What does this fold into?
Amino acid sequence: MEQKRTEQSLSTHQGLEEAYVKGKPKLMARLRAAGRSLEEAEDLVHEVYAETMERLVVLDGIRSLPAWINSLFTRRMIDLWRHDRVRAASGETDVAEETLREIISGAGFDPLEEFVRECMVDALNDALRALPDAQRRVVEAQVFGAKTFREIAEASGESIDTLKARKRYAVQNLSRALRHWVGK
It folds into this structure.
């Protein structure tokens, strides 16, 4: 009896390995198509297979292991999507990186060159000082203070929509200033 259980466990383990080798590229492609970074995609795929390994004993009764893994993976993707929606609704973002990307892409140049990067930091600081106070406070609170729109709204008593509009105008103004800087 014990030998039969060991053989089943071994065959389930081999089936899981086979499913991983065959299924990982498809799962990674689904996540990448959903806009996830390579690191996030790999993490989620590994989490799904690690959870599956933990349930190895239960897997003996499953007819189609790849289908079971796919359904677990789909549930995890839905959880991620819901989590992202909640974060966005609450105003939570990865502010510094996101804001700088918006500004840089709006200005239309490559920040990877060291000289450009150094000059851009100086120009960006000048442009920040030139922003209207309300816009500058929102950008500084998010970029330097790592605060969400919700936190800023609670501290200032202003609505989240007003703060988002101020940030949008600030990003446009900063992009315009950097485009002007590039033209010099």
